[in-house]
Amino acid sequence: MQGKIPLPDEQPVAVNALRNKRAQIAGMIAMHEGEARQLRTELIHIDAVLRLFDPETDPEGLPIRKAFPRRMAYFAKGEVSRRVYDALRDGTTAANELAEAAMTEKGISEDDRHVRRDFVNRFHNILHHMRRRGTTEKIGNGKGVRWKLAPTERDLL
User: Fold this and answer.
1) Where in the sequence is the domain holding 152, given as residue range(s)?
2) CB 92 within 8 A of CB 152
3) CA nearest 87: which of 95, 7, 52?
């Protein structure tokens, strides 16, 4: 009987693992629903105080600020920095070029505007962060901005 599906009591390990996983996920959902309720309560209180200070304000009309995760699922830990350093070792680069190369390597269509914008923003952010640390230098301003590695003390001697 090749096509026979084993009964649950014939597969106690698999069934038990599935039950445990389901319980875990249901617990996570319950926890996050509780967090969402708490956040909605806090929002109601903030809206009430906002109306006290400015009765003309419509809290529902205010823009929502989205929180972006620190890391994207597309990149492994440290991958964005590594890509930037690799590109800068070869000369100057732009965040758009880095994003396009990464999307091509990962097989992501450049037609997806949201993903492309997120990629470009990730590379812009890391380049600016590296500039604050003194690792990179900005060449130009605006849309055509390019980046290069900052000279080290050894380069200046």
Assistant:
1) 79-156
2) no
3) 95
